[in-house]
Amino acid sequence: MSAPRKWLYITGILMLCAWVLVPIYLIGLGAMGGRMAVFKWPKSLAPTETSFAALAAFLKIEGVWNAALNSLIAASLTMLFSILLGAPAGYALARFSFRGQSAFRLLVLLTRAFPLAILALPLTVIFIKVGLYDTPLGVSLVHTALALPFAALVTSSLFMGIPREYEEAAWVFGCTRWQAFRKVVLPLALPGIAAAAIFAFVISWNEVFAASVLTVRERTLTAYLLAVLSESPLHYRFAGGFILIVPSVLFIFAVRKYLFAMWGVSSK
Question: Of 36 and 243, which is predicted with more confidence?
Answer without folding.
Answer: 243
